[in-house]
């Protein structure tokens, strides 16, 4: 009888398939048709581990993930036998040009095993004289990812990790949770929903903002205008992820989809936005910046014009590339809305460079910049710091299964499912994040040394070129239309960075008294 069970089971499936009308494939090919759906479900995993080449996968290739995984585990992240990238035929392949001689003395920074100091070249809030201006002690920090989108264990892992690495942790627009207060310094992101700093009607509440800041290690505020994953759309946290705890932190009803609008209600144009920036800075003393993906340049032209007088200005500008993507979004927004980072960033930087404003604001790059080559390119184009998001997720266990929007993340990073999140151990994953950040800083410093400078912010657009197969290479300055001094820090800042790299202390973010 036991031997007949498989036959009876197959017969039952066949009978069901023949009678159902939902799937024509199963109606025509009972039992056998299920193999097609099984392969479809397993397709991403099959391609990821068996079919795809080392550089074919997106968003992150196998080579890129391997480097992050090895780095975060403190393992050997070197490669052997030369590059397997198709340098001979690739269009727009970036090449970093090393120097034989340099006026800068070589560093003693190790190739691996120890941390290196790599502070921001600029003081956040310094040019505007903010009361709590400070110099971030790491040029690599963790980008905005909310509690709710990520699990509590993931948030704790990241916050403890940045504390170990001396970096900063952006809260994301979902409010400031207890899990963000695990030892790491914070940048509190204020989104269009004003989560964590809103009244009962969803309007911005300054008193609540100030009350929260008093009990949390918030070092700066970031006003989110848009993000690369869903620019101009606003956010959606599905009902399945809106627990009682998340609802309380965000100040919203539990058990409902949480939808943030596409635009702010506290201001409506550049003039009122700058008033809002100055209000937050005056009331809190903190540096205040803005974050946006790049579309129409009219906004940036108007903002730069308004900043020329120096009366009002954001302290930092975070540019997010359209290829960024920790947030769930409609396919058309992920694929086709907002410019990719390098195009968007260089257009915005050029707007400020033409007005002589670049030394007065800190530029932060975001959007797949958590690898040494891409980060180096961002610094060469004028970025002062870079933020990492998906790379940080990979460091704490993400496998790029791309199930973030389903609440079924198998490694417990992007889910509120308690069974899945129990597998993520913050005591281990925080160390892995710290080791990844340290490895990236080490590689950036070694690349800087190869170029002949002491800090990646001193790399300029003439130090890289883009190859177009084996036919021609064009300097970044020419490709992106930069004038002679664009992409370079002013001489006072360059001298300041050189002095920092000679004798600056290691440790946490350096305050400015």
UniProtKB/TrEMBL annotation:
InterPro entries: Aldolase_TIM (IPR013785), GltB (IPR024188), Glu_synthdom (IPR002932). GO terms for biological process: glutamate biosynthetic process. It holds the Pfam family Glu_synthase. Residues 101-131 are annotated as: Disordered. GO terms for molecular function: glutamate synthase activity. Residues 138-453 form the Glutamate synthase domain. CDD domains: GltS_FMN. Belongs to the glutamate synthase family. This is FMN-binding glutamate synthase family protein.
């Amino acid at each position: 009888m036991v031997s007949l069970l498989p036959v009876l089971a197959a017969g039952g499936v066949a009978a069901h398939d023949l009678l159902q009308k939902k799937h024509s494939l199963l109606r025509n090919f009972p039992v056998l048709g299920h193999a097609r759906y099984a392969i479809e479900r397993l397709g991403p995993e099959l391609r990821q581990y068996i079919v795809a080449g080392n550089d074919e996968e997106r968003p992150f290739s196998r080579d890129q993930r391997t480097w992050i995984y090895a780095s975060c585990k403190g393992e050997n992240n070197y490669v052997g036998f030369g590059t397997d990238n198709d340098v001979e035929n690739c269009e727009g392949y970036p090449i970093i040009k090393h120097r034989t001689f340099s006026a800068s003395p070589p560093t003693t920074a190790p190739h691996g095993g120890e941390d290196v100091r790599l502070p921001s070249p600029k003081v956040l809030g310094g040019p505007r004289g903010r009361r709590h201006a400070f110099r971030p002690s790491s040029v690599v920090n963790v980008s905005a990812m909310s509690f709710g989108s990520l699990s509590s264990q993931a948030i704790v892992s990241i916050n403890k990790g940045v504390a170990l690495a001396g970096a900063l942790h952006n809260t994301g627009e979902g409010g400031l949770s207890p899990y963000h207060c695990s030892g790491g310094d914070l940048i509190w992101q204020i989104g269009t929903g004003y989560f964590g700093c809103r009244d009962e009607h969803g309007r911005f509440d300054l008193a609540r903002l100030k009350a929260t800041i008093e009990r949390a290690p918030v070092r700066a505020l970031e006003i989110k205008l848009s993000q690369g994953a869903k620019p101009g759309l606003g956010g959606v946290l599905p009902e399945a992820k809106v627990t009682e705890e998340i609802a309380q932190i965000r100040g919203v009803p539990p058990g409902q989809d949480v939808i943030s609008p596409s635009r702010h209600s506290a201001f409506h144009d550049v003039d009122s936005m700058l008033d809002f920036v100055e209000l937050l800075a005056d009331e809190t003393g903190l540096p205040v910046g803005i974050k946006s993906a790049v579309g129409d340049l009219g906004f940036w032209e108007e903002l730069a014009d308004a900043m020329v007088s120096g009366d009002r200005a954001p302290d930092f500008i975070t540019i997010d590339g359209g290829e960024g993507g920790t947030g769930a979004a409609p396919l058309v927004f992920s694929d086709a809305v907002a410019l990719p980072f390098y195009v968007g960033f260089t257009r915005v930087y050029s707007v400020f460079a033409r007005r002589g404003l670049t030394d007065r604001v800190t530029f932060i790059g975001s959007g797949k910049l958590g690898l040494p080559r891409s980060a180096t390119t961002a610094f060469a184009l004028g970025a002062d710091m870079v933020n990492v998001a998906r790379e940080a997720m990979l460091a704490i266990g993400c496998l790029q299964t791309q199930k973030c929007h389903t609440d079924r993340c198998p490694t417990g990073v992007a889910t509120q499912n308690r069974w899945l999140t129990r597998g993520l151990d913050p005591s281990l994953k925080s160390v892995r994040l710290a080791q990844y950040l340290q490895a990236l800083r080490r590689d950036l410093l070694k690349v800087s040394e190869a170029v002949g400078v002491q800090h990646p912010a001193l790399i300029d657009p003439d130090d890289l070129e883009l190859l177009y197969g084996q036919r021609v290479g064009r300097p970044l300055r020419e490709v992106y239309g930069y004038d002679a001094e664009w992409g370079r820090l002013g001489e006072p800042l360059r001298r300041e960075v050189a002095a920092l790299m000679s004798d600056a202390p290691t440790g946490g973010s350096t305050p400015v008294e």
